[in-house]
Design brief:
This protein is α+β, with helices and mostly antiparallel strands. The chain contains 1 helix and 10 strands, in the order αββββββββββ.
Amino acid sequence: MKFKLRRVAIVLTMFAAALGSVFVVPASAGTQTAQATCTGAGSCWFSWGRITAGDCTMDQAKWTLNRNGSASFEAVIVSSDSNDAWLMWPTIVDSSGFVLGPVTHGGDPKFVRGTVKNTWTWWFDAGSFDGRLFDRINSMRLASHC
């Protein structure tokens, strides 16, 4: 009886591991996460180191989220090729990893900035999010593409 129970436990463990690998989708190479806790604050900041996507590089990226639902962004970007653009989709996430929603730019969740070949350029932008979610924010994700 012990042998059968152990065998069933092994089979169930293997099944759960296989099932988890089907439903747990890792973040793509173009997605970066930064953490901060916004609870009780008036503003909170999220910052990233160097992020690369294709021919493009973004460095010193920082989002500031305010309790009233406003957001501001700054970073420097560059590309080794001409006629490139950095595309970014920022989302806010709670402590359980649940996506609370996007940070939008005029209602659009996509932020775009053209690059200058081999020249670092400052990128400043503004956005908004649902300020009612402010105290639940634990991290931000940046999905990026060039």
